[in-house]
Amino acid sequence: MTGPAGYGATPARSRLFVALRFPPRVREGIARATDALRALEGVRPVPVEQLHLTLRFIGETERSREAPLARAIAAAAADLPRFDLRLRAAGVFPSLRRARVIWVGVEDASALLDLHGSVEAAVVRAGIAPEPKPFRPHVTVGRIPRPPAPRGLTDAIARVRFETTVAVHEVSLMRSKLLPRGARHTEVASCPLAGTGA
C-alpha cells in the first residue's frame, strides 16, 4: 500500500502489554492504602482506574499482531486454573535511595508465576522477542520521574497497612496510548482461565 506521494504507508502500531485487571473495590482499596505515598511531593501517582499487575510488557508492535497475540494468550490462559492472588504491603524499586517505582506487593505467587510463564511462552510463539528481565510481580501505584527520593518516603511505606485477596479468572491484552496527560489503557482482548464461567 502506498500513500499519495508514492511512499509506503507506515503500518498502524500499538503499544501493548498483558495484565491482570482488578475490580473497582480492589483498585480503590489499593489507592486508599497508599494515599500518603501517592501524595508525596515528586511522586506521579498512577490513576486509580489504571491500577493493574503487568504480566508482560510487549511494547510497540504492528497493529496486525494484536489478533495473533490475543489468540496465543487465550490458548495459554485456557490451560491454567483460576486462582486467588494476595496483595499486601508496599515498597519501591530499585532501592529507597534511588526509588523510581512505588508498588504494592504480591504474596505467595506460585500460581501467578505459572501464569506468567505460560503467557511469556505464548507471546514468544506469536513472534515477540523473549523478555530478558526477570519477572518481579507488583502493582505500580506511583512513579518518581526524577531523583532524589521524596522526603518522608521511608516512613510512608512503613505506615502502609494493606492486604487483600483477588480472584484471578482472566488475563487481558491491553493497548496503551501515550497522551500529554499520561497513558490511556484500552482492553484489546479478555482471555479467561480454565473453568471461568462454569
How would you explain this protein's 3D organization?
The chain is of the alpha+beta class. The chain is 24% helix and 36% strand. It is built from five helices and nine strands; from the N terminus they run βααββαββαβαβββ. The strands form two sheets. Strands 2-6-5-4-7 form a five-stranded antiparallel sheet, with helices on one face. A hairpin with a 7-residue loop joins strand 4 (83-93) and strand 5 (101-107). Helix 3 runs antiparallel to helix 4. The protein starts with 12 loop residues before the first strand and ends in a 6-residue tail after the last strand. Mean pLDDT is 92; it is low at 1-9.
In a nutshell, what does this entry contain?
This protein is α+β, with helices and mostly antiparallel strands and 198 residues long.
Poorly predicted runs: 1-9
Q: Helix content range of the residues, please?
A: 10-25%
Radius of gyration: 18 Å
* Terminal Cα span: 45 Å
Mean pLDDT: 92
Number of strands: 9
Secondary-structure element pattern, one letter each: EHHEEHEEHEHEEE
Characterize the biggest β-sheet. Answer: 5 strands, antiparallel
Judging from the principal axes of the Cα atoms, what is the shape? globular
Taking strands numbered 1, 2, ... along the chain, how are they ordered across the largest sheet?
A: 2-6-5-4-7
Structural class: alpha+beta
* Fraction of residues in β-strands: 35-45%
Count of runs of 4 or more consecutive helical residues: 5
